[in-house]
Structures are given as C-alpha cells and as structure tokens.
Amino acid sequence: MITAIVLIQVEADAIPEAAQAIADIEGVREVYSCAGDVDLVASVRVTAHEDLADLIPAKIGKVPGVLSTVTHIAFRSYSKADKESAFDIGVEGA
Questions:
Q1: Its domain of life (predicted)?
Q2: pLDDT tens for residues 50-83?
Q3: Rounded to whole angstroms, how far apart are CA atoms 36 and 60?
Q4: 43: closest CA among 61, 62, 58, 56?
Q5: Distance between CA atoms of 39 and 81, rounded to whole angstroms?
Q6: Contact 55, 2 (CB under 8 A)
Q7: 37: closest CA among 56, 10, 60?
C-alpha cells in the first residue's frame, strides 16, 4: 500500500463542504481542517502509484472549492503503537 499526505488549498467559504466531499472519496482515509499554510490535510492510501494520479488530480482536485494540492508520498511509518506492538510478538493474551 502507498500512503500519501495531500495538502489542500480551498476557498475559505467552501472548507466544510470540500472537506466532507474529499473524505467521501474512496482511498481517502482522513481529512483534517487545520491552521497554517494549508486549509485541509488528507491522508490517502492506494495500492499503486498510478492510483494517486487518478485520485488526486481527477477526484480531489475536482472537488468544488479546491484551489490546489501538494502531495507528499510516505516512505515509512513510525508510531508509538508500532513500537509497542513489536514487543507483543510471541506473547499469548493475558
């Protein structure tokens, strides 16, 4: 699976509707509204790089109110949950 983080600029008066429309697109896992340089941040998971080409410009980019997108492809995931679960390998439930 390929994970990408998509930074999205949206017209100010369209943020809630655009966020929900983007969240409803297949392949989009989560959408966050945020303060800062971008209006929305979306987490996307697809099976192939070609799927990103279909998803981002053809679907996310076409949502009414979306002005622009910048995509960052993730190489590796690091999280506290991943680290803690590694210690559970081979341990039977308590």
A1: Bacteria
A2: 999 899 999 999 999 999 999 999 998 887 766 5
A3: 20
A4: 56
A5: 28
A6: no
A7: 10
